[in-house]
Amino acid sequence: MKIEGPEVYELAFTPTSFEVLCPKGTNKFSGIATNKLPKLYIASIDRKPVYVGLTKQSIRNRLRLGWKAAGEGGYHGYAWRRGNDKATLSVWCHVDAVNRNERDIETVEAEVVFLIRSAGQWPPFQTEIHFHPSTDVHRQVALDIVRRYQL
After folding, report:
1. pTM metric for this prediction
2. Cys-Cys link to 96, which of 2, 84, 102, 125 (CB 3.0-4.6 A)?
3. From CA 80, how far away is CA 66, in angstroms rounded?
4. What is the pLDDT along the chain (151 residues), one digit of tens a residue?
5. Is 76 in contact with 69 (CB distance < 8 Å)?
6. Which CATH class is domain 3-146?
């Protein structure tokens, strides 16, 4: 399992829109955040994870969906966009995923959320998680990711 990242972006937002600051100084996502491979992303505020997500679409498209959602079909979008105005978004990509299969990165996502919970509490805006049997590799990748945060 080959994971690249993180790519780290700063987000400024209101409940209805967001702006991104790329480390390259632009207002666009780049690199792994733009590909269609399975990605894990973490929104954090003051180095504390508030949401852990997964996508195979570009990060911009995924965020756009989370910002535009208004409850149709039961999805209300990202709760962390309300009551906050800035966050850091870190993105990791499973670059050797076979046929873009997200099962491995989804397993890492669950392990990351578990480690955050084990340190005290669930990410405050986490609304869903899928659990799969994990291996030492999944758990090590999750541990490497979580070490970047203040839990």
Report:
1. 0.96
2. 2
3. 10
4. 999 999 999 999 999 999 999 988 899 999 999 999 999 999 999 999 999 999 999 999 999 999 999 888 888 899 999 999 999 999 999 999 999 999 999 999 999 999 999 999 999 999 889 999 999 999 999 999 999 999 9
5. yes
6. alpha beta
For residues 34 and 37, give the distance between their C-alpha atoms in angstroms, rounded to a whole number: 9
The one-letter amino acid at 57:
Q
Tell which residue, 105, 77, 73, has the closest CA to residue 92: 105
Cα–Cα–Cα angle for 67, 111, 105, rounded to 5 degrees: 65
Q: How far apart are CA 41 and CA 123, in angstroms?
A: 13
What token pair was written down for 26?
Answer: 């632009």
Tokens (6 digits) for 92? 């990791």
What's the Rg (C-alpha) of the chain? 15
Cβ atoms 89, 52 nearer than 8 A: no
* Residues 34 and 59 sit within 8 Å (Cβ to Cβ): yes
User: What whole-number distance in Å separates Cα of residue 109 and Cα of residue 61?
Assistant: 19
Record the tokens describing residue 54, joined without a space.
């997964």
CB 104 within 8 A of CB 97: yes
